[in-house]
Structure formats: C-alpha cells, structure tokens
Amino acid sequence: MLVDMGKAKECGADVVEIRLDYLKDFNPSHHLETIIKQCPLPTLFTYRSVVLYQRSRAAEVHNLSEKRRRSRINEKMKALQNLIPNSNKTDKVSMLDEAIEYLKQLQLQVQVS
Asked: If residue 72 lies in a helix (H) or strand (E), which one and from where to where?
C-alpha cells in the first residue's frame, strides 16, 4: 500500500484516500500506525458502512425504476397524442384534457347513432 502511495506522489497526487471498508485483512491498530508514520502524502481515511452502501444502492435502484416509469409515461402520452385529431399540446395536463374532451365527443356520437 505504501508503494502505491509513493507512485501516487510521483504522479503528482496531493493526497491519498484509503477506503477502509474495501481493505481485506485490515488490522487498524497495526496498519494505521504504519501508514501514518511512513506515508509520503497526507492521507484521508474513509469508511462506508454496509448499511450506508445498502441505502445508496436502494436509492439508485429506486431512481432507475422511476426513470423507467417516467419514460413509459412519456411514450404512452405520445401514443395518446397521436390518437387525438389536431392535438398539438405538449404538456401532459393539456394533453389529458384534450383526450378527455375527445372521448366525450366520441361518446356523444355513439349515443346519437
């Protein structure tokens, strides 16, 4: 690890971040003391608990599913717009208003027939 820090310094790094949760077989009392004493660069130690990782992963999954849902809604709104004659509205509320009015007209035509 110290060798990698030396390489980072040679490449122009100003600071090194060590994610403690990524390290296997890490003995904090021994390894931290060695790193602090021998590290050629200032070192930032971070730790991300499993719970935080799971929460961020759950948020990521939720965001992706919401993005897919919005995409599907937009596709269906375009399909609906193509079914309504002379429809030129782009916002969803106006589009739905036009669709409702058009369906009401169709219902009246069916009742009159």
From this structure: helix 50-83
pTM: 0.51
C-alpha to C-alpha distance for 55 and 15, rounded to whole angstroms: 28
DSSP string for 5-32: HHHHHHTT-S-EEEEGGG-SS--HHHHH
Distances from the Cα of 4 to the Cαs of 1, 42, 61, 69, in angstroms?
5, 14, 34, 44
Rounded-to-integer distance, Cα 81 and Cα 85, Å:
8
Instruction: Inform me whether the pLDDT recorded for 109 exceeds 80.
Output: yes
What 3-state class would DSSP assign to 87? coil
pLDDT digits (tens, 9 = 90+) for 4-28: 666 766 777 777 776 766 666 666 6
Cα–Cα distance, 53 to 51 (Å, whole number): 5
CATH number for the domain formed by residue range(s) 51-112? 4.10.280.10
pLDDT in tens, 68-102: 999 999 999 999 999 999 888 779 999 999 999 99
